[in-house]
Each structure stands twice: as structure tokens, then as C-alpha cells.
Design a protein that fits this description.
Layout (H helix, E strand, L loop, with lengths): L5 E3 L5 E3 L15 H52 L9 H4 L44
Antiparallel strand pairs: 1-2
């Protein structure tokens, strides 16, 4: 029993059993201040990126909504040609789906409320009420 048992540390060094290991300053963990600095930097980066991300998301929702309105308008035009409907005749979404539209479109910002189809000659409307979510059908 006169032998001293030796074991290896994580860093490959050997130390006798029962010896008090002192950490090298390079081997210590992160301090609370260091962690707080990292969290502060991440918070600043998020605060800079978030408005840009929100604007990009709003622009994408507007483009999707206008594309949906354009599809509804074109489906109404095809319906009017096929049924010989006149300007002012009412059209329902059930008249357009599934023959002219695969499925009923919804505005991504509208919370799942259906578009207002309106009569022939009147552009469809978005339920969200966002001013940029409109289709200028006179330009076609």
C-alpha cells in the first residue's frame, strides 16, 4: 500500500489521489460578468435586426395579399366570360371555388377571414383593412 495511486485529469496531467487540484486561470469557466456582456451583445443585435425582419414580413404579406386579390379578380373575369355575367352581377366565392380557384385564399395578415369578392366590375377587398392590401384592377 506504499504506492501512490495516480489518475489523469481531463487535460492529460497526472495527480496523486487526494491531492487538491488548483485550476489554472485559463481553465476556469465563464464569469457572470462575461455572460452578461454576451447577453447584452445578443440583445443589441436582436434589437437591430428585429425591425428589419418585421418590415420584410409586412412587405411579404402585402405581396401575398395583392397576389390573392389578383387571382380572385382574374377568376371573376373568367366566371363572367363563362356565364355571360354583366357588370354589377353578384359573385360569391362558392361560384369561383373549385372551378376557377383551387381553394379559397386568405390574407396572411387578416386572421383567417375570407376576402370580399364583390360584384363584377368591382375589385375584391381584403378583410384586414391594411391600406396597402388592395388591388388596383384598373391597371390591367
Amino acid at each position: 500500500m506504499g504506492e501512490r495511486t495516480v489518475w489523469k485529469t481531463l487535460h492529460g496531467r497526472t495527480a496523486p489521489t487526494g491531492a487538491i487540484m488548483r485550476q489554472n486561470p485559463r481553465e476556469r469557466g465563464f464569469t457572470l460578468v462575461e455572460i452578461m456582456v454576451v447577453i447584452l451583445i445578443v440583445g443589441i443585435l436582436v434589437s437591430l435586426a428585429l425591425p428589419s425582419w418585421m418590415n420584410a414580413r409586412a412587405r411579404a404579406q402585402t405581396r401575398i395579399c395583392v397576389a390573392n386579390l389578383r387571382q380572385i379578380h382574374q377568376a371573376k373575369e373568367m366566371y363572367a366570360l363563362a356565364t355571360r355575367a354583366q357588370t354589377g352581377d353578384t359573385v360569391a366565392m362558392t361560384d369561383l371555388v373549385p372551378q376557377y380557384l383551387d381553394k379559397e385564399p386568405f390574407c396572411p395578415a387578416g386572421g383567417g377571414v375570407a376576402y370580399t369578392v364583390n360584384a363584377i366590375g368591382t375589385p375584391p377587398q381584403c378583410p384586414s383593412g391594411i391600406p396597402s392590401h388592395r388591388f388596383d384592377w384598373t391597371g390591367d
